[in-house]
Protein: DUF1624 domain-containing protein
Amino acid sequence: MQSTIQAAVHTTGTQPLAEASQPGRLVSLDVFRGLTVMAMILVNNPGSWDHIYAPLEHAHWHGCTPTDLIFPFFLFIVGVSLVYALDGARQHPETHGRTMLRILKRAAILYGLGLFSALFPSFDFSTVRIPGVLARIALVFLVCGIVFLKTTWRQQLGLLATILVLYNILLQLVPVPGYGPANLEASTNLGAWLDRTILGEAHLWKQSRTWDPEGLLGTLPAVGTGLLGMLTARWLRQREVAPATKVAWLFVAGGACVVLGLIWNGWFPINKSLWTSSYVLYAGGLAVAVLAAFYWLCDVQGYRGWIKAPLVYGVNAITVFFLSSLVPRLLNMIKVPSPNGPTGLRTWLYDTFFVPYFSPINASLAGAIVCVLIWLGILWVMYKKQIIIKV
Structure:
């Protein structure tokens, strides 16, 4: 699942905002983050978009595939990380002003990275996509960071419930101007209308230009996903509770969220593009269970022999996500001769080293796996040299 990028080389004693990989933090969180970003790289970089195994694609509309879990897992991790990064500052109200400025600064940098990625390489501001993955991460980080500083866990739980119910009401009861009754169709739901009204069609997802999967209204329940992560972290930080008890109750809570999400799916369908309330509970419940399992294995039982690959991804997660979106475009700007005329270097590499040796769908998968492995090699070297790029 981090020029415009603000870099810093890790030194002992430096504690970056929302970083959970330092001594005394959760190893399991970096592992979870790393596996999530590895999955993100895999699904975002197939050899060919025309040949993809079904689990590596998003659901067409309603429904949920494994790929649809990647982004909510990452936002859940953002919520967990915030608690570990800001708990000390939260206990000192006199520092809240400075802490909020730090939160705002990091959110601005994250959004700037997303905007740069959307602009590159043409830098056409007239059609640049304003929403996006990094933009949503930035907004969730900003809102959840401020909420954590200023509210109790009970207030956060109440806010989560309010957001989920309110969003359901907005999408299923509020009429859509110019279209009539409330509906959940891609181009005519309330969120799509709001995006077109405020941002304009030219600045939405280029595959549709009539709606955006990371639109404005959908960011509201995405904040709910971050809140679930915050509530999970606050439970994990209860020092008077035994680790086994923490894990047991996390599995109970995660399972309850999944069941509630599936029940709610009956009238407000699970849908990633709309980020429906049922989707928040379903994906968030699974995220709680996954973190609980990793926490038990890595932090409690100490089984860490297998974690190196996800760990090196986890400590430079935003970096690899940002760069992996730019490198394919850079490679295809380099033209090389081919029987059909000049072609981009990335396309030539894929056609030369993958297409002749696999079936179309396996060639596409092999290309994605090699991409993950190449980035693993780069990140491994960075990890060995203690180079961790911060934003």
Q: What stands out?
A: The chain has two domains: 1-53+304-390, 58-292. Residues 213 and 273 are 4 Å apart (CA to CA). The longest strand covers residues 335-336. Strands lie at 335-336, 343-344.
